[in-house]
Design a protein that fits this description.
The chain has helices spanning about 10-15, 20-30, 110-140, 260-275, 290-295, 300-305, 315, and strands at about 35-40, 50-55, 85-90, 90-100, 145, 155-160, 170, 175, 185-190, 190-200, 215-220, 230-235, 240, 285, 325-330, 335-340, 345-350, 350-355, 360-365, 380, 385-390, 400-410, 435, 440. By secondary structure, it is of the alpha+beta class. It comes from Acidiphilium cryptum (strain JF-5).
Length: about 450
């Protein structure tokens, strides 16, 4: 609706554009996980789910063509193809609102009007950053869990803390449910088994952030020694997780397992093994302030900057910036979890990301004229719509200030990158980020 429909006392405020600028400033001042996402526009008229296809590479050729076979129409060559993989992003609608009564707030109407806009902006920014965080972390927890209940005797099924990363396998680039026809190789304890079925618990008891507890069923019996509570369960395609002292599970972390420079370098090495591209020359590491502080107590870190503590920017600013192939970005939205078995301890999870680790799809029709007419008070700021509705109640006193966003986040896979195409590559389905778990 047009500005002319608003009370005259509010029209000057709106016409000067104060609301839009206040909203934009709040939105840009927030957090960091969304920064790693590659922004893509989700076109109108194609439904609410978009499946994208990524082409793989062909294996290297290191054997010369024998002259004796260079005959006939095929010259002794066998046709080769390249693999594909698919990932899906789904649009969802997120919104919030608040009201302002012009009469009861008349004394401070201008400042409260602006404050509402700023508060909406902060809420929108924080919400999108948490959505980005959740979409980024979920696949990088995948394929890594532990036995949650000891088997009484050898049996084909075990209870685990988190079934993410075990439910599907990639078949010709398409995620397909695990079954007897499409099994997944999983290491339980000290031995490997073929996973053929996954059942989530009716009552979720997972201790992992966003985790889903459940039961894994294998093609043959799991021994009691392997199916003992606390034993690591790891899929052959599990995402890389770095833990101090090589701890196999989250619950195995001890009080002394703090963040070290060695763990960070291991994460960087894993990304470089998979040829993950950097972000403006380095990898981004998102971590909370406690994790950042622990670096200054690490002997290797201190030795690196020994003799330069007074003049080096790392120590002057109390944070790390662009060294050893890493750019550190502190955030208060990082996952912090109570230790599963040790009281009083917390698990912290920095994550090191390369380019393409996350994709954000913004719906292209969010600001269309038929949804938001040209004279309406709807402003699109960084992909988020700020809406100010005129008073339409009987007394024309209550203004509504709202925001909404239509879009989605997803972490694309890299299953076509294998040792056949990149000799140092790992078997992880998701390769563009490495999570670190430590005590803090």
């Amino acid at each position: 609706m047009g500005i002319s429909n608003f009370p005259a006392s509010l029209q000057p405020i709106i016409q000067q554009g104060f609301l839009e600028r206040e909203f934009e400033q709040a939105l840009r001042s927030r957090l960091g996980y969304r920064m790693v996402a590659d922004r893509e526009s989700f076109a109108v008229g194609i439904g609410e789910t978009l499946t994208k296809t990524r082409a793989g590479l062909k294996p290297s050729v290191t054997t010369p063509l024998a002259a004796a076979t260079n005959t006939n129409l095929d010259n002794g060559l066998t046709p080769q193809g390249w693999g594909v993989e698919q990932y899906t992003v789904t649009l969802n609608f997120y919104a919030a609102t608040q009201d302002l009564n012009m009469v009861t707030s008349r004394v401070g109407i201008a400042s409260q009007f602006l404050q509402n806009a700023a508060t909406n902006g902060e809420q929108a920014a924080r919400s999108l950053d948490e959505l980005a965080r959740n979409a980024l972390f979920a696949p990088y927890f995948g394929g890594n869990t532990r036995v949650s209940a000891t088997l009484a005797s050898a049996a084909p099924s075990i209870e685990v803390d988190d079934i993410r990363g075990f439910t599907t396998v990639f078949v010709n680039g398409v995620q397909t449910a695990v079954s007897a026809s499409y099994p997944l190789t999983v290491t339980v304890g000290s031995n490997t088994y073929l996973l053929i079925g996954v059942t989530p618990d009716v009552n979720n008891a997972s201790s992992a952030p966003g985790g889903i507890s459940g039961t894994l069923t294998f093609s043959n019996d799991v021994s009691v020694s392997d199916g003992t509570v606390g034993n690591a369960v790891r899929a052959a395609t599990a995402s890389a997780i770095v833990r101090p002292q090589g701890a196999g599970t989250t619950s195995a972390l001890q009080a002394t397992d703090t963040l070290t420079m060695s763990a960070l370098l291991d994460a960087v090495a894993t990304l470089r093994q998979n040829a993950v591209p950097e972000i403006d020359g380095v990898y981004n590491c998102y971590l909370d302030p406690v994790s950042a502080r622990q670096l200054f107590a690490d002997p290797d870190f201190r030795q690196l900057f020994q003799g330069a503590t007074s003049s080096n920017a790392v120590f002057r600013q109390g944070m790390v910036n662009d060294f050893l192939g890493l750019r550190f970005i502190t955030t208060t939205e990082a996952y912090v979890q109570s230790h599963p078995t040790l009281a009083g301890l917390y698990i912290r999870r920095p994550i090191v990301c390369g380019k393409g680790a996350l994709i954000e799809a913004d719906f292209a029709g969010i600001g269309a004229d038929d949804v938001a007419p040209k004279d309406a008070l709807v402003h699109i700021i960084d992909g988020v719509a700020m809406v100010t509705r005129e008073p339409i109640d009987r007394l024309q006193q209550i203004i509504a200030q709202s925001w909404y966003w239509i879009g989605g986040f997803c972490a694309p896979s890299d299953t076509t990158t294998t040792p056949n195409t990149i000799p140092t590559a790992t078997n992880s389905n998701f390769k563009r980020a490495v999570m670190i778990e430590h005590i803090g």
